[in-house]
Amino acid sequence: MRLPARLVIGAKRLMVSLSGSYLTDGGGKWLLAAFLAATGIYGAYQGGRLPAVMESGRDVADVAANIAGFKIKTINLSGQNHVTPSEILATAGIKPTSSLPFLDAELARTRLEELAWIKRATVQKLYPDRLDIQLVEREGFALWQKDGKINVIARDGTVIAPYSDDPRYVSLPIVVGDGAQKHVVEIVEALQQVPGVRGQVRAAIRVANRRWTLKMRNGIDVRLPEKGVDDSLAQLAMLDRDKQILTRDITVIDLRLPDRVSVRLSDAAYEARQADLKAKAKAAKKGGNT
After folding, report:
1. What pLDDT, on the 0 to 100 scale, is given for residue 54?
2. Does the pLDDT at position 195 exceed 60?
3. Cβ-count burial of 4 within 10 angstroms (0-12 exposed, 13-18 middle, 19+ buried)?
4. Which CATH architecture has domain 142-269?
5. Are 110 and 169 in contact (CB under 8 A)?
6. pTM of the entire predicted model
7. Per-residue pLDDT tens over the stretch 56-90
8. Residue 137 C-beta-side C-alpha neighbours within 13 Å
9. 74-137 adopts what CATH topology?
10. 40-63 b/e with 16+ CB inside 10 Å = b?
11. What is the DSSP letter of 160?
């Protein structure tokens, strides 16, 4: 393992300085102490013990600062609903022995914002002994199903937590498939414009990461186009209002072509229609022979 170049250069300069001084002088003693400290750091780095040595150094510094009256006595937390206080403190690196001067507030903020639930964090040191931590948490926006697993996701698609029976999650819209989490806003906001349709949607399935198919609660699949989703949903809402299309005995409603709506009948409905057409044809033939 190589020592960082900056530390090597510093050690060389120190050795040159020592070579021209008397160790019996006060300045020489301080230089010797600095040289020995640098040697100790080098040895710790070579032995892979540098993080432990630095942590011990911080502990010693905290003890000194605490004696001087800078021990963190008050911690004000605000904005947390899903993250526990113990998780916040542990993530921020705050221990019972931590002191205010040697707490890296910026590093604590960065670590807190790495937690899935936390969108934004502010860490403020108020001397001599108070720390304020303000959090803005992400909110569950939808449920994302992929590979048989369901997770709660935020508006930006960030996975927040595995799905549970928490009442806050039960009514969230469901999106399914690869890429669905990245495009969740577009389909959720489009469905909000047609509440009559939205209430009948069981899930929105992302197809080939290009378009959506809506799985309705009664089993009908509504195939939406890649573009013009808002217009297609408005058309679907109108058809359902005027023709009750979403309650018909059909399996597929295809809205992918801008100039037509295609439907696929269920097997039972198809057989019934074929029988009806045959009966009409037979009646028409019989009427023509009379």
Report:
1. 46
2. yes
3. exposed
4. 3-Layer(aba) Sandwich (3.40)
5. no
6. 0.70
7. 567 888 988 999 999 999 999 999 999 999 999 99
8. 16
9. Ubiquitin-like (UB roll) (3.10.20)
10. ebbebbeeeeeeeeeeeebeeebe
11. E
